[in-house]
Amino acid sequence: MIYRLGKKKKLTAEINVVPYIDVMLVLLIIFMVLSPLLIQGVEVNLPQTDTTKMSIQNEPLVISIDAEGQYFINIGEEQLPINLEELKNKSSIIFSANPDIEVVFQGDKNVSFDSVAKAMAAVQSVGIEKIGIVTTGYAD
């Protein structure tokens, strides 16, 4: 039998962080690829104005109007096609559940203002007062 005297091997307590960095980088790449896909709403060409950002405490109710004048209500991740009478009824239900609801309109720049004004009047008729219009800033 051979006995080693003198040198004892000390244990080292180290954490190998390389696998954690690899996992973090993979997750970062996944979120970078998926984030553009999470944008919701109907594709509209917004008019350009000199705007300031509005402060929103709660998520607003978004009503989109496409170039053909069709109305869409965005509830969660769904874009539901809707007519003016249904818009008035659903707005009334949503307003009764949340009286502080904010409604924003996304109107395509090629749609007539008459379509936007009718939608705004339908929403205002149920008592909603916090109404806005979404635009884009000028491209400098």
Blueprint (SSEs and pairs):
Layout lengths: L17 H17 L26 E5 L5 E5 L2 E5 L1 H14 L5 E5 L5 H12 L6 E3 L7
Parallel strand pairs: 1-4, 4-5
Antiparallel strand pairs: 1-2, 2-3
Helix pairs in contact: 2-3
In short:
The protein has 140 residues and is an alpha/beta fold. It has 3 helices and 5 strands; from the N terminus they run H-E-E-E-H-E-H-E.
Descriptive account of the structure:
- Helices cover 31% and strands 16% of the residues.
- The chain has helices at residues 18-34, 84-97, 113-124; strands spanning 61-65, 71-75, 78-82, 103-107, 131-133.
- Helix 3 links the parallel strand 4 and strand 5.
Total DSSP E strands:
5
Structural class: alpha/beta
Q: Main sheet?
A: 5 strands, mixed
Chain-averaged pLDDT: 78
Count of helical regions? 3
Q: What is the CATH class designation of the domain at 61-133?
A: Alpha Beta
Q: Uncertain segments of ≥5 residues (pLDDT<50)? A: none
Strand order of the largest sheet: 3-2-1-4-5
Write the CATH architecture name of the domain at 61-133: 2-Layer Sandwich
CATH overall fold name of the domain at 61-133: Nucleotidyltransferase, domain 5
Radius of gyration, rounded?
27 Å
Give the ordered list of helices and strands: HEEEHEHE
Helix content: 25-40%
Strand proportion: 15-25%
Q: What's the end-to-end separation, in Å?
A: 84 Å
Give the overall shape: elongated
Tags for this model:
alpha/beta, Nucleotidyltransferase, domain 5, 3 helices, 5 strands
